[in-house]
Amino acid sequence: MIDKFLIQQQDFPIERDPGFFETIFALSNGHFGTRGSREEAAFSHELVDEGTFINGFYESELITYGETAFGYAKEHQTIQRVPNGKMQTLIYRDQVLGRDGEILEEERKLDLKKATYERTFIWLAAGVKVRIETRRMASFEDPHLLLIETKLTNLSQAAEPLQFKTCLGPEKTEADQVSDDPRKAQARGNLHYEKLSEHFPLLETQTNRSRLAVVVGKKTTVKDEATEKQLTFDEANQTYEETFSFSLKPEETKVCQSAIYYGDFAPVTAHQAVSPAEIEKQLNQALNRFDNGFEEQAAHMSRFWEASGIELTGDDQLAQGLNFNLFHLYQAAGRDGQTNIAAKGLTGDGYEGHFFWDTEMYMLPFFIYTQPEIARQLLKYRHTILPQARERARELSIEKGAWFAWRTINGHEASAYYPAGTAQVHINGDIAYATQLYYETTKDETFMKAYGLELLIETARFWTSFGFFDEQDAFHITGVTGPDEYTVLVNNNYYTNRMAKNNLEAAFQYADKYWQQDGYQALFDHLEVKEEELAAWKKAAVNMKLLYDPDLKLTLQDEAALERKPWDLTTIPKENFPLLLHYHPVIIYQHQVSKQADTILAEYLFPDTVSIEQQRRDYLYYEKITTHDSSLSRSIFGIMASRLGFQEKAYPYFNSTALMDLTDLQGNTKDGIHAANLGGTWLSMVYGFAGMTVKEDGIHFEPHLPEQWEKLAFSIQYRQERFKVTITQEDVTVEKINK
C-alpha cells in the first residue's frame, strides 16, 4: 500500500543514481536548502553531491565570448555552495563510518507531513554493531536553522568506546567541469573562508567578484555528562571538527543533536549584522528546545496541507506524486521579497540557480490562490530589480520602460545565448500577467500602490518602444523568441504578442482607474506618465498582430511557422531527445518542431478569446510537432486536453507531470527538482481537471474528472475568503471556510 505522504528509498529501483535520492530527499525553506545526502558522505572515498545553498547567494564572473557584440550579457551568476553542516561520522578504534565497515538494513524516507528527512541503519565494523537513527529538518518557523538529531544504540554484547565526530566546512567537490548540457551549472566560484570563533564552529564565506558574505555556525550537544569533547580546526580544509568520546553499553542509546545556523548574506563591507555571540545564543536556544522545533515544524506543515493540499481519491501513486510536488514547490519559494524560485529550487545548482519566467507563469498561481503572502513576496522581488531592468532597456536602445532579464539572480542579464535569452522579451508580459492575477485575486491595494502599478506601467512602456505600427496601423513585435526555444528570432510570435496585448490592456485599465485617486498622483508624476501615453497603450493593444491562416484555419505561432521544413518526430531515435543535446541549433531552427507549449500556452491563459473549435484544431496541430523536451510543456498540454475533451490524452500527460521527478522522466532529477513542473502539477489539477476559470462574476468550475478518480478536493483563497472545493463523479460543492 502506498503512503501518500511518505517517500521511501525502498520504493525505487536499486540501480537509481545516488544523486537522484539526494534530490528527492532534499530539504529547504526558501532561505536555504540542503540535498538529501548521507551524513557520513564526506568521509567516504566517493564524491557525493551534498550541496547546501542559500537562496540568492551567488558568485559572478565575466562571460568570455569567441565573438561578441554590443549589448551581450557581461557576467555569469552562479549560486554558490555554502559550508556543509551535515557532515558527521562515527568512529570505532580505526574504523570510520562512511569509509569502513558495512551498512545494513538501511531505510531512508522523506516525511511530507512533518517536512523531515529520516534515516535508520546498522553499522557493522570490526565486529561491533551500532544502530544509527537520524532525522533532520530545515525549519520553516526559523528559516536560518537546520536541525539534525542522531541516536546511537549499541547492539553488541559489550560496552564499546566510540567517537562521534561532527564537522562544519566547505563541501568536498570535483573541480569545475565544462558540460555540453546547458541545464547544468557551468562554474563554481573560488570562495574564501574565515574562521570566526575559537570555541564553536563559525565560518564566514566570501565570494571574490560579487563581494558577498554569509556566516554559517553550528553547535552540537551529546546528552551525557561522561562525554569528552574536543574542538579543532583543520586549516588545510578550512573545516571545524568537533569530536565527542564516550563508552556505550549494550542496548544503551546516546542522543546527539546539532543546530546549524545559515545567516543572511550581505555585501562584504556591510556584513557583520549579527554578532558571533548572537548566533551562538540562537543556536543554544535551538538546542534547548530541540524537540519543540520538530513539533513546530509538524504544526506548520499541518497548516500548509490544510490551506494548500489537494486530496485525490482513486489513484494513490498519483496522489503521492502530487503531494511530493506541492511539498517541494512550497519549500523552494523565497519569502523575503529579495529572492525568488530558482529553476531547481534549492535542491541543486542546475541552471546556475537562476530565476526565470517559470515563477510567474507556472508557480505563482499556486501561491496566489493558497499562500498569497508568499506570492506577494515573490512579485516584490521583481520590483526590487526594476532599476536593473530599466538600465537594461536603456542599454538596448529602449527609450522608456523596463526590459527584465531572461535569467538572473541579481537582476542583470546572465544569458550568454541571446536568441534563447534576451530575445525572450515575453518575460515582461509574464511578469505583468502575474501582477494582474495577484491583484485581481487578492485585491491587495497596498501592493498595487507600492509595487504592482509601477510594474505594469514600466512593462507596458517597453512594448510601445520595442514594437511598431505598420501603414495599416497593425502593431508588430519582431525579432523575438517565444516560449518555444527551438524557434528563435521570429516576427510576431503569437504568445509574445498575446502577452504584450494583455500587458498593455492591464496597464491602461489600472492607470485609468487610479488616475484621479488620492495617493497615486505622486507615482504618476514620478514616472512622468501622460494621458497620451495611456492612449498609445490602448491603441497598440487593440491593433496587436495575432497571426491566423484562414485557409488552414490555424493560429500561427509566428510569420514563418509554415515555411520551415517538416520533421517527422517519430523517425528520431529515442536516445536523441532532448534535441538540444544532439543537434546543432541551426538544424533544429530550420524545422517545424517545438520544444514546449507556445501558442497552446497562450490559449490556455486566454481561453475566452479563441473558440473551442479553433483551440482543438490548434491543439492537434501543435501537439504533433512538440517534443516536450522542456519540463514546462506536458502540464499545459494536459490542461488543454482536459478542457477540450481529449480525456484520453489528459490523463497520461498528468501522469508524466505528477511523477516527473519521482520517475526521473527527464533523466536529470539528480541535478535538482523541476520547479516549474511542480507548479504545473497544481495547474493541471485546478485549471485542468477541476476546470477552474475566473470571470467578472467570480470563479467557475467545469470539472473533467477522470473516470479512475472518485474525488478531488482542494482549497483556494479568493479576495480574503477561503473556499473548499470538492468534486466527485456526481457533484461539485464549494464551501466557504472560516479562516
Write structural notes for this entry.
With 739 residues, this protein is an alpha+beta fold. It has a domain at 31-274: Glycoside hydrolase, family 65, N-terminal domain (Beta-galactosidase, Chain A, domain 5), CATH 2.70.98.40. 32% of the residues lie in helices and 24% in strands. The strands form eight sheets. Strands 1, 8, 9, 10, 11, 13, 14, 15, 18 and 19 form a ten-stranded antiparallel beta sheet that branches. A five-stranded antiparallel beta sheet has the order 7-6-12-17-16, with no helix packed on it. Strands 2-3-4-5 form a four-stranded antiparallel beta sheet. β9 (116-125) and β10 form a beta hairpin. α8 (426-442) packs across α10 (494-514), α9 (445-466) crosses α12 (531-542) and α16 (633-644) packs antiparallel against α17 (647-658). It is globular and about 90 Å long. The mean pLDDT is 95. Keywords: Glycosyltransferase, Transferase. This is Alpha,alpha-trehalose phosphorylase. Residues 324-682 form the Glycoside hydrolase family 65 central catalytic domain.
- Ranges where pLDDT stays below 50 over 5 or more residues in a row are none
- Helical run tally: 18
In helices, the fraction of residues equals 25-40%
CATH topology annotation of the domain at 31-274: Beta-galactosidase, Chain A, domain 5
Largest sheet: 10 strands, antiparallel
What is the CATH first-level class name of the domain at 31-274?
A: Mainly Beta
Report Rg. 27 Å
Mean pLDDT: 95
Name the CATH homologous superfamily of the domain at 31-274.
Answer: Glycoside hydrolase, family 65, N-terminal domain
- Total number of strands: 31
Instruction: Find the structural class using helix and strand composition.
Output: alpha+beta
Strand content: 15-25%
Which of globular, elongated, flat, extended, rod-shaped describes the shape? globular
C-alpha end-to-end distance: 34 Å
CATH architecture of the domain at 31-274: Distorted Sandwich
Binding site for substrate: 357-358, 595-596
Organism: Pisciglobus halotolerans
InterPro entries: 6-hairpin_glycosidase_sf, 6hp_glycosidase-like_sf, Gal_mutarotase_sf_dom, GH65_N, Glyco_hydro_65_C, Glyco_hydro_65_M, Glyco_hydro_65_N, Malt_Pase/Glycosyl_Hdrlase
GO biological process, one term: carbohydrate metabolic process
